[in-house]
From TrEMBL:
Name used for this protein in its record: Histone H2B
Family recorded in the similarity comment: Belongs to the histone H2B family.
An example Gene Ontology CC term for this record: nucleosome
Molecular function terms, GO-annotated: DNA binding; protein heterodimerization activity; structural constituent of chromatin
Protein source organism: Araneus ventricosus (Orbweaver spider)
Ranges of residues in domain Core Histone H2A/H2B/H3: 24-98
Length: 108
């Protein structure tokens, strides 16, 4: 092992890291996944001449994330109630009906 390689691994051992624990490129760049592109495409289909601010886009993306998380939690709970290991479309459909009111549940 060369002196350079030895000193690099030694430095990582001192701070309690191993080579596998280093952050990936996506973590370093700080990229956040969002639904901005999809929200924008739907907006343009519904209202082609309307724009959206970045703050409003952030709110919409947070809203979509929140709804998806609620559906996932509820469908997981339903699968557990029925002693099933797999979340199927039936659990997701039931979760949507429980979470969304009236007409929204019918069209979702």
């Amino acid at each position: 092992m060369s002196r350079n390689a030895r000193s690099k691994s030694y430095g990582m051992e001192i701070i309690g890291l191993n080579a596998q624990a280093l952050p990936t490129k996506a973590h370093i760049s700080g990229r956040k996944e969002s639904f901005a592109n999809y929200i924008y495409k739907v907006l343009k289909q519904v209202h082609p001449d309307t724009g959206i601010s970045s703050k409003a886009m952030s709110v919409m993306s947070s809203f979509v994330n929140d709804i998806f998380e609620r559906i996932a939690v509820e469908s997981s709970r339903l699968a557990n109630y029925n002693r099933k290991c797999t979340i199927t479309s039936q659990e997701i459909q039931t979760a949507v009906r429980l979470l969304l009111p009236g007409e929204l549940a019918k069209h979702a």
